[in-house]
Every structure is written in C-alpha cells, then in structure tokens.
Inverse folding.
C-alpha cells in the first residue's frame, strides 16, 4: 500500500497528536492548524505522544484513507519541533517507519541534474 504513495508530497505533523482523532478530526487539523488542503494529493503523517503509533491520512478519488502503524518495541524518532507541519521526502518517511532518523548523516543525498555536460 505505501508503495503506491511514492509520488505524493509528505507532510509530517511535528510534536505529538492525539491519535484518538479519526479521519475528520485529522482533516480538520490539517486545514485549521497547518493551513493545508486535506483534499490535495498530499500524505499527512501524525504520531502519538508515546511515539509508538503513526497515522497517515490522504485523499484518494472519492474518500479519505487512514493508515495506522503501531510498533511493539521502541519508539519512532519523531521531530518534536512544536506543532508545525514539516515537509519530508517519501524516502525519509520510510526511514521513520523503519525506526531511523529522518536526518541520516550517512545516506547518499539525492542529486538532480539538468544536463550531462
């Protein structure tokens, strides 16, 4: 399922989010707190206070998807930079899901070139 989301812009909700909220509550949070459009093609990712659960919200054609991941041991390395939305790459999201930091010092940086010569 997550493989189909590779071309979407990813927004991470920094800090803790009350994950008792469902689709409508998270969509309102996206709209009012982050001033983003929950009906866009973006993926919005939230984490609870204990940092052991993640919810992903996105709009698809005629309805919202809400995906949840809960880990049994350990914690997600979640940024605690207040209550703002942070843009990350899909690659960084996969790092988070695998228990790694989004700030990988040893990962190769993505390069983009406009010409060969």
């Amino acid at each position: 399922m997550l493989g189909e989301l590779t071309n979407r812009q990813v927004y991470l909700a920094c800090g803790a989010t009350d994950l008792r909220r469902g689709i409508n509550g998270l969509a309102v949070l996206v709209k009012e707190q982050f001033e983003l459009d929950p009906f866009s093609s973006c993926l919005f990712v939230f984490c609870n206070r204990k940092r052991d659960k993640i919810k992903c919200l996105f709009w698809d054609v005629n309805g919202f998807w809400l995906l949840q991941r809960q880990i049994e041991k350990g914690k997600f390395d979640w940024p605690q930079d207040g209550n703002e939305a942070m843009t990350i790459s899909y690659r960084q999201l996969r790092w988070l899901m695998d228990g790694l930091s989004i700030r990988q010092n040893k990962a190769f940086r993505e390069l983009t070139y406009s010409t060969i010569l």
Notes: Strands lie at 10-13, 43-47, 53-60, 63-70, 85-88. The radius of gyration is 15 Å. DSSP finds two helices and five strands in the chain. The chain has one domain: 2-97.
